[in-house]
Each structure stands twice: as structure tokens, then as C-alpha cells.
User: What shape does this take?
Amino acid sequence: MRVRVPGSTSNLGAGFDTIGLAVSRYLTAEYRAGDGPLAIDRRGTLASLQGMPEELDLFAQAMRSVCPSLGGTLVLDSEIPVGRGLGSSAAAVVGGLTLGAAVGSSTVDVLRTARRWESHLDNVAPCLLGGLVAVVDSEAFPLVLAPGIAFAYAAPGVPLSTARARAALPATIPHGEAARALGHLAALIRGLETADVALLKLGLADRLHVPYRLPLIPGGAEVREAGLAAGAWGVTVSGAGSGLLAVTAPEKAASVADAMAAAFREAAGPEGVVAFPLVPDSRGVTLDAS
Assistant: This one.
């Protein structure tokens, strides 16, 4: 059995812990039944994790939670950068739960069960459902994304842990600041639906997380300016970072990604920098049981 899970970018500026988008970078996992302990073969962006004990592997943990008796081989191959804001952990959890349920012929509520590993579902929901998704508590629902909007992504060679990114946030904010943040969220949702550039610029001007997380990313401020100078309508932190996400016109996505990559290389060093245009994924997780 084989499962394919898209990566995801969350927040998209003012949609902090609320909005996520499935994107065209994928985690593929194939399970081959067999006797003896489960062997895990990690490839692609997961190759550096080769040798990680099974009990520390999110995919294996999620899979075993719904199918405890596993033997054989699990081949994990990912295009999603690890720890750099494109939902690598959420993809692992969604893929593990989906594949485990299929192997064990069981039913599982993936969205709610995922809370065991991912307390915030703004990455989980788009990995599961595809497209642009909003979450409220344990509920998820689709949002409209205009076809005239494109995305570009760039990240330095160093990851940023979600725990560190969350620790940088203030425990409280003034009531008035929260109200202004809601206005930016409204602009973001309408801007994504209509491709209204003025509204998108308002919606990408976040007040809740970007000001606190951007300084944790080596070269983050310089890369954001480079993306804007190359024609992006806005540049924000992708998820918890360390990657940055630009929102732009389709014809400029590649050049914006290149400009952001060049700025990362200059500001943070060339090693491990990744950058590419991103296309929304509309399908979410898929299972091939043939």
C-alpha cells in the first residue's frame, strides 16, 4: 500500500493558527508487509534521518497508533524540507494515520486523532483535504483561492523548531491589537478569494507571529525585502519557519523564488538553501491500495 501526502504552508500572514494551504511538495510512503521488526528506509529530504529509531519517527508512531502489529518495510520518500515551515510533521502524521488505517482495515478520524502529535491543525487539515483550508478547534472547512495567485518559497539551510518559534510569541496581547489582527484576517480571506492585491497586502501584514519569528530566521528581514523588490505582493513566514512564503503573480513566482534564495545565500550562507515556486495541491492525501 502506498500513500501520498502534500506538504502545507500555514498562517499565510494574518491567518495565524487558522489558515493552511496544501502545496505541491510530497511525502510518499510505501508499506510492504513482512515478518520481524519494522524496517524504515528514509529517502529524499528524510535521508539525513536514516537510522532514527522507530519510536521517534512521527510517521511510524501515527501508523502504529491505529495498526499496532507491524512488520516488514516502510519506505518513506519526501520532497518536503524538514523543519522549515512546509508541514513535514503534519504530512508524516496524516500519512501515518491514513496508511495505518488502510493496512489495519480500520476507520480513524484523521483530523481529530492528529491532535495527539499536532496540537494546531492548520497544517494537518490541508495535508488531509487539499486546497486552502480554515480550522476552528477540531473543525475544518474549505476556503476559495483565486487562480490568479501564485506562491514562492525559500528557506535557509538551518531549520527552526516549532517549539522555539512558539516560545518567541508573547503570552498575551492588548485587546485592541487583537481586534486589528482580525481585520487583517478578514482582508486576507477576501484577498485570497478575489486576488485583490490591496487586500492581500493588508492580509499578509501580520501582527501576531511574524514580528516575533522573523528575527529568529537568519537573513529573514533581508530575504523578505528581496522578495518584495522582485515583485511579490507580500512575504511572510511559512508556518513557524525557517522558510519564507511569497505571494505574487504567476508569471513572477520563479523570479521571486530566485531572488529570495540569493538573499538567503548572501545573508545566511549558501549551504542548504532551497527555493522554488509552489503550486496549490487540490487533492490532499491519496491512497493506492493496489
Notes: The chain is about 35% helix and 25% strand. The two ends are 7 Å apart (CA to CA). The first strand starts at residue 2 and ends at 10.
